[in-house]
Amino acid sequence: MHWAEVFGYIAALLTFATFLMRTMIPLRAVGIVANIFFVIYGYFHHVYPALVLHAALLPLNSFRLYQMLQLVKKVKAAAAGDLNLDWLKPFMSRRGAAAGEIIFRKGELSTEMFFTVSGRYRLTEIGADVAAGEIVGELGFVSPNNTRTVSFECVEAGDLLTISYSQLKQLYFQNPAFGFYFLQLISQRLFQDIARLEARAAKSRRSG
User: Fold this and answer.
1) Whole-model pTM?
2) Rounded CA gap, 45 and 48, in Å?
3) Do you know which PANTHER family this protein is assigned to (predicted)?
4) Smallest Cα–Cα separation from 131: which of 140, 143, 141, 123?
5) pLDDT tens, 172-208?
6) Does some domain include residue 207?
7) Domain encompassing residue 8
8) How far is CA 53 from CA 4, 48, 57, 59, 147, in A?
9) Residue 166 in 3-state DSSP?
């Protein structure tokens, strides 16, 4: 047996191992090592189709691993402090909103979350204005019945970024750490909303 075949067998075992993995980060990491071993095997054993394939897959796997590690890092940082959800933008789709448009109504089934890029918006029933740079609809992701608790309307035309709850679930299943920190983030935002409502109620009692 040629010594280069050892690299081929190791690469094959590593590739097989990726099919047993349930989360994306270890799968990508092992896939990268398998790519390297296949490139070595293909070069010294003159198996050029395998060499070309895994030489192409190596930077792709490396980039996807980098993306996922950055995502987890940014979610963790957001959960620890500033509640900034800018890290989610690369996974969202852009859509326009016209003045007077009802983005969603109270009682509707909630299926997606929004990030306001530009324009002005309002949560109708509670009369709360929503400026650019805010997230709307994130609590529907974790609510038991997934229904909207308020209506969301566009006051001044602008752009929104959207991400479906199914996409959020995919990110969670690909990397459970993302789900853990995202739920931490949602919990913090919920407690902040409760604090604002309590402050508003206290102010109303004093003025009354």
Assistant:
1) 0.56
2) 8
3) CRP FAMILY TRANSCRIPTIONAL REGULATORY PROTEIN (PTHR24567), DNA-BINDING TRANSCRIPTIONAL DUAL REGULATOR CRP (PTHR24567:SF68)
4) 123
5) 777 666 777 677 767 777 777 777 777 777 777 777 6
6) no
7) 4-80
8) 18, 8, 6, 11, 47
9) helix
